Amino acid sequence: MKLKNFVGLWVVVTLSLFIIFSPLASAEQVKFKEDGCTFSLPVYEAYEKFEAKWDGPSVNGLAEGEGLIKYTIEYADKTKYEAEGKMTMKQGIANGKATLKFTNGDKFDINFGNGDPQNGTIIRADGRKYRENFTIITLMAKAYLKG
């Protein structure tokens, strides 16, 4: 009887944690279409406005290879991030190296795999440097919440 109660409690706690933290575990891939070329970028928080432009090659209507990316994202609290730089796309999603410079002075050199950041370096405008393998939690904590 005690084992059954323990297993039941474990299942409830595990499901609760999954529901609470699932928005942090994966990105929403926001799709854009420009001049017949479709591409997507990952976003981890709810936003008010997201605009992006891709200037690079495409294959079968999907961004493919290295190109120039420029985007602006604005959140409900009016926090705004603007970035531009080089990014590698594969079948319309970030896959490979991205070197982004933000208008606030931050620089990201990150490798993407299937739309999610895998590893790289973040250099904050004040000189702080973070270099490691990223999960979404460490990426957000080090890149935005500590700033």
For the secondary structure, the number of strands is 11
Proportion of residues in helical segments: 10-25%
**Helix-strand pattern:** HEEEEEEEEEEEH
**Distance between the amino and carboxyl termini:** 50 Å
> Mean pLDDT, rounded to whole units?
76
List the strand order in the largest sheet: 3-6-7-8-9-10-11
Sheet-strand content, in percent, reads over 45%
Which residues form runs of ≥5 with pLDDT under 50?
5-25
Task: Briefly note the structural class of the backbone.
Answer: alpha+beta
Radius of gyration: 18 Å
What does the model show?
With about 150 residues, the protein is an alpha+beta fold. Helix content is about 25%, strand content about 50%. The chain contains two helices and eleven strands. The strands form three sheets. Strands 3-6-7-8-9-10-11 form a seven-stranded antiparallel β-sheet, with helices on one face. The protein is globular and about 40 Å long. Mean pLDDT is about 75; it is low at about 5-25.
